[in-house]
Structures are given as C-alpha cells and as structure tokens.
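Structure ticket #2291
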Amino acid sequence: MSNSVALVTGGIGGIGTEISKKLAENGYTVVATTFNKEIEKADEWIAKQKEAGFSFLVEEADVTDFEACAEMIKHVEETVGPINVLVNCAGITRDGFLKNMDESKWDAVLSTNLDGVFNMTKNVLDYMLSRQYGRIINISSVNGQRGQFGQTNYSAAKAGMHGFTMALAQEVARKGITVNSVSPGYIATTMVMGIAEEIRDELVSQIPMQRMGEPVEIANTVGFLASDQADYITGANIPVNGGLFTSF
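Resolution: structure written out below.
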C-alpha cells in the first residue's frame, strides 16, 4: 500500500491532523490539503509532524474552486500515486441567527462545507472508477443530524453532505468504491478548547458520556472506514458523539 495515497482536505487542522496520522500509520502516503500554505503555516506543521515521525505532503487547493481541485488531484495522481482514499474534512463556520445572517455567511459555509465535497469527489472519482477501488469518507457533524441553534448554514451543509454520501454510495457500490460519512459531536480541538470554560462545561453537561471527544477518536473511525475491514459498509453515517444524539 506504500504507493497508495490518502488525500485529506483540511488535513492540517485539529481533526485533520489526527486523521492524517492514522492513515499514515495504516500504510498510506498522506497528502493534506490547505487553502493557503503560508497563512495556515503549513511548513511549521510539516516540521512538527516530522519530529513526531510522520512524513506528510501538503498541497494547496481552494476546495470551493472546481478547477483548482481538478489540477491539484491530477498533480497528486501523476507525481505521488493513486488516490485510493479521499477524506473530505475541510470546513468552516460562520455562525449567527438566520434573521441576521447575510448572504456572504451562507455562501461561505455552503461553498466550503458542501460544494467543496462535490468539487473534490467529482474530480477524484474518475481515477477511482478506472481502478475499480476507492474509499470516500465525508466528515459531517452531529449538528447536521439534529440541527443547532445559530447554525442554519452549517447544519444545512452538514446534512447535505450525508445526503450526498447516501446517493453517491448507491451509484458506485458495484465499482468497488465505498462512500460513508462520520458525524463528530463536540471534539476537544484547539478551537473548541478556546471557548470560555463555562460554555464548555455547559456543552459537556449535555453529553451522556460527560466529556468531549478526542480528535483521535474521529481518526480511528476514519481509519476503520478506509480499511478492508469496512468493505461491506457504504452509504452509512457513523456518529462519534458520546451519545449526544442517537438515532437509527
């Protein structure tokens, strides 16, 4: 599998980093994507991960730009190796009540969190179909399942992501490609831990397990879905939320 590539959008973020590490441990050559290497300090991230024993590649690509995604994917296929795993992890928030939300906040979240999934998946799909193999894993959210006060844009995008997952899974099931989504609950990333302690305590009080999840717990789920052990799982949504929201 040394020549098999896992492409992780938003791969240098809190959850993305753990996903990248897990897939590397599982034998993949990992390419993490970033919107802007300089702004997101990609070189520092690469150096830090190298100290920890991981050798990652980073490619720039604006997931909202279809052509930029196409060019980046073509470059990776030609210079790194076959992309057998795609993890759509890139995402942003622009929270606010709908009555106060301007169009730019709606467009930004939908463009990144939902259009980005289309732009990346559409451009990698032909390569996967030609090989009759692929794993597509979309990082959704518990708030795409239950909705969240002040997040109409984010909740809509994340719900749409799983609708995309279910439909595409049916289209490619006979082609050796699985498509699944993972819906994290509240995860202890640097961003979340930066929230005021009293607000974090209130969030944790709503979770039956009485704690936030760890990024590695999302990564472990992604690692399983990317493995041969998950051959017969497709069109599924795997909740990793400590019991915050349950359904069947």
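Closing remark: The CA atoms of residues 195 and 201 lie 10 Å apart.
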